């Protein structure tokens, strides 16, 4: 799971990259919907199953999750390390 807090409803984009910088997975959530609501958000709904955008299982190891949020109060971007274990 990827968990984050929003001060207000915001458009959110989450992109997961491997350690070489290749995009692995991407989610987009409009303000006010699941993933873009004020408060704590955990995405994806059922948890990331470790597959890429193309449906292939990713290798175990380290990845980077970039979380971008933009709303009426402004915008912010953060990067978090995540690990995959199969």
Brief summary of the model shown:
With 86 residues, the chain is mainly β. It is built from no helices and six strands.
Instruction: Please give the number of β-strands.
Output: 6
Unreliable stretches: none
Overall residue-averaged pLDDT value:
92
Strand-and-helix sequence, N→C?
Answer: EEEEEE
The biggest sheet, with number of strands, parallel, antiparallel or mixed sense and barrel status, is: 4 strands, antiparallel
* Tally of separate helices: 0
User: Terminal Cα separation, in Å?
Assistant: 14 Å
Strand content: over 45%
Computed structural class: mainly beta
Spatially, the strands of the biggest sheet line up as 3-2-5-6
Shape: elongated
Instruction: State the share of residues found in helices, binned by percent.
Output: under 10%
Please tell me how large the radius of gyration is. Answer: 13 Å
Topology readout:
Elements: E1 2-6, E2 11-18, E3 23-29, E4 39-43, E5 61-71, E6 74-84
Antiparallel strand pairs: 1-4, 2-3, 2-5, 5-6
Overview of the molecule:
With 86 residues, this protein is mainly beta. The chain contains no helices and 6 strands. Strand 2 and strand 3 form a beta hairpin. The radius of gyration is 13 Å and the shape is elongated.
């Amino acid at each position: 799971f990827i968990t984050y807090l929003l001060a207000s409803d915001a458009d959110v984009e989450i992109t997961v990259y491997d350690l070489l910088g290749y995009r692995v997975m991407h989610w987009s959530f409009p303000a006010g919907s699941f993933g873009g609501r004020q408060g704590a958000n955990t995405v994806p709904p059922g948890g990331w199953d470790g597959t890429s955008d193309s449906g292939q299982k990713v290798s175990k190891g380290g990845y980077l999750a970039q979380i971008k949020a933009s709303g009426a109060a402004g915008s912010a971007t953060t990067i978090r390390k995540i690990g995959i274990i199969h």
